[in-house]
User: Fold this.
Amino acid sequence: MATETAPAPTETDGAHDHPAHLEHHFVSSKQQFDSAKLGMWVFLITEVLLFSGMFVAYAVFRQWNPEVFVAASNTLDQMWGTINTVVLLTSSLTVALSIHYIKQDKVKQCVYYLLSTLGLAGVFMVIKYIEYTAKFEHGIYPGAAFDPHGAHYEHLAGMAAAPQFFSIYFVMTGIHGLHVVIGMLVIGAIAFMAWRGSFSSEWYTPVELTGLYWHLVDIVWIFLFPLLYLI
Amino acid sequence: MSTTTQDAPVEDEAHHDEETNYLNHDTGIWSWLATKDHKRIGILYCISLAVVFLAAGILALFMRAELSAPGETIMGNETYNQVFTMHGILMVFLFLVPSIPAILGNFVLPMQIGAKDVAFPKLNLASWYVYMAGAILTIAALLTGGVDTGWTFYTPYSSTTGGGVLWMTAAIFVAGFASIFTGLNFIVTVHKMRAPGMTWNRLPLFIWGIYATSIVQVLATPVIGITMVLLILEQTMQIGIFDPALGGDPVLFQHFFWFYSHPAVYIMILPAFGILSELIATFSRSRIFGYRAIALSSVAIAMLGFLVWGHHMFVSGQSAISSIVFSLITYLIGIPSGIKVFNWVATLYKGSIWLQTPMLYALSFLFLFTIGGFTGIMVGVLAVDVQLHDTYYVVSHFHYVMMGGSVVALLGGMHYWWPKITGRMYNETLGKIAAGLVFVGFNLTFFPQLVLGSRGMPRRYANYAERFAGLHELSTYGSWVLGAGLFLILGYALWSLAYGEEAPANPWGATTLEWTNVAAIPDHHNFKRTPLVTRGPYDFHLADEVFGGGDGEALGDDVPRIPEPAPSAPTEDDTAASASA
Assistant:
């Protein structure tokens, strides 16, 4: 580690005319794009496993208390659930369209579709808020605070595993909702960057990755909706 | 080699600008804290992990001191509970899980595959910061009353007891992300960043080990993450998933916990397998026996490792059918492990064995890991486990695997790559003495514990019956020998940083790229020119091709023949020039 001389001035990687987005340790844009995409897929696998723990908890407690789970599930509002499913599926379409348009250098359409995705995600969260407050009003809280009252909920008070159902419901939809909020922040940032002209058909990796993430958020809901609301 | 003159040119063609390397091309504390260089991040991890290992090791010495005689010797029961808990948590979650991938994987992996860096350098740096956040939360746990649950956090005790459990579980949740980031980075790097000609069958076996580890990290760690989140919610909101008093299921917690924590054992041991393959091949001067068998057995262990978690729960009340299935799959793990040990021994056979310090650790590993593996099969036997469960037999078994396997391999790897990391040689004589102390001390500490456990000494107790006193005393003496060996290593490692002999580019005559194509202290970008890989990683048998034509040069016993560097891959300029010509 002897430092006889001052550090050499910045050594450049030769005089190649790299595209601005290409980082020095990649050989080509294609390698960089493929790496980013593979990395995102691996990340999505970790997300699936994160949710898998909660799905297992759901399966175990449902297996032991099928009647309680049916009774508790019936108190969830299927109408709002269905609307939210449609909203989220539509938002998956819009985010896919934004990728489609940026590939054709249609920046304006890309921004519009990103913003509509953002709007739909907002609608989803508002509906979730309505559902949550409707439950809280009747004393349906996760965990120790569980104290059901009111016409549609009183029968849950005597059921042994009803608190578990709602704990699982709030934890699963809560963590899913957290993913929606994170997705909204990311989509907002990406839309802003797209509007500033950061992306083109040459380089749209962040748009593509955001789309992949958003599809995962959607897919998790596709499983949550029937398990919690329908069966 | 190059001992008399200072700064003697090493075996490196481009020695004109060898003054700049990754250590001195940019200086100052900020150049380290904001570095995206995988080599520097490896060193950041190395320093952090060394501190954790020191702290957890000192806790172990305190435990052994308390256990040196029956009754209270140096600490009370409450303190003892906290000490063994912190020893376990620090060693498992904050030291062993990150250890080899984060230090040596970070430093060596990109160089071994001929890449300039890992695929996501910023994520790599983020991994270290996330790890440090986990370490800070651990300190917060200590300040808020400590943890005495044992490293396994079994419910309902962990969800109802106060103190620092909340902070500790948060620390493990956070530190898990560091592990995920590293694993994700390495998977993508191995898939996408290999140099031209570096096919999957030419990957050094260390890469295969790290690759298999990364798969486990990515698949298992999220599960401990959600488990810790649920445990935190159980503590704060009593969500009733794990606590039987609230209608929850404590065995479900054990399933979740071991679904991560058993694969986590393979996170610890698979990279150790990788290091061992490098050491055995290099210091036997022979081609590794059964390359594909070693490579794929790592992947097989990674996969089977996900299907055996239930063997921690034979006496927890899971169904008999489950226990039988988990027990059978546990036996299966013995097959790929046995393949590995067989292949390493077969590599030694008729090799030209060079007993340098790293090789001593490799041979220690073979011995210790084999004991660890066989005792593992024994506790995987249903009937035997009922007797041995929660005794010192189990303690000793997993120390033979984790310490005798992972830590010994890490020590071997650190000695092996020390010249490349620091540019200095360590003191070989002291190195051999320390390796001997570690080996003797380790066996003296843990072999008596196998006997203790089989005679019924339960784990996690600060006190014990008079009849166990002799073996416990022996074990405590062993811990002193082991501690002396480890402190000796710390001492001469620090000494070598300042006064060590300058290392040549390839002191071991190894054939992998980080030795043949990288300067003594690596350049900031690793390679002057991207190498073109034309042969397998351990082709010692291709004497002329690997070592150059025989020039009749006489070499001493201690001086290995140095393999020639791999040729450079054509760049865009070259191809453009040849196309236009």
